[in-house]
Amino acid sequence: MSESTREKLRAFVLEKTESAIADLTDQTHLFENGILKSIQVMDLILFVEEISGQEIDVEGLKPGAFKDIDTIMKNFCENRDEK
Fold first, then answer.
1. Distance of CA 72 to CAs 13, 28, 32, Å?
2. Interior CA angle at 72 toward 21 and 78, to 5°?
3. How many folded domains does the chain comprise?
4. 71 near 27, Cβ under 8 Å?
5. Angle 68-78-70 (CA atoms, 0-180°, nearest 5)?
């Protein structure tokens, strides 16, 4: 599941960005670098819920939960049974 999920997440980011991205890595800060805008957070949350099959507790979100693709994968898409 992880690699296809990671690829879907990358495609989502590339589709939603209004910035020119020369080099998007899984460690690129999505909001800090202006790749995504804060107004797109809900779209990102809904997309992550869709690809992970899990509802995200938005009330329990901590700052930086959507910092980059690696962080999103770690927080919401990997080892869901262990959380």
1. 12, 12, 15
2. 130
3. 1
4. no
5. 15
pLDDT tens, 18-64? 877 778 899 999 999 999 999 999 999 999 999 999 999 999 999 99
| CATH number of the domain to which 59 belongs | 1.10.1200.10
d(CA 19, CA 79): 32
pTM of the shown model: 0.85
Q: What are the pLDDT digits (tens) for 4-30?
A: 899 999 999 999 988 777 788 999 999
Q: Which domain holds residue 56?
A: 2-82
- Closest alpha carbon to 36 in 3, 2, 10: 10
Backbone angles phi, psi at 66, to 5 degrees: -120, 30
User: What's the rounded Cα separation, in Å, for the pair 37 and 35?
Assistant: 7
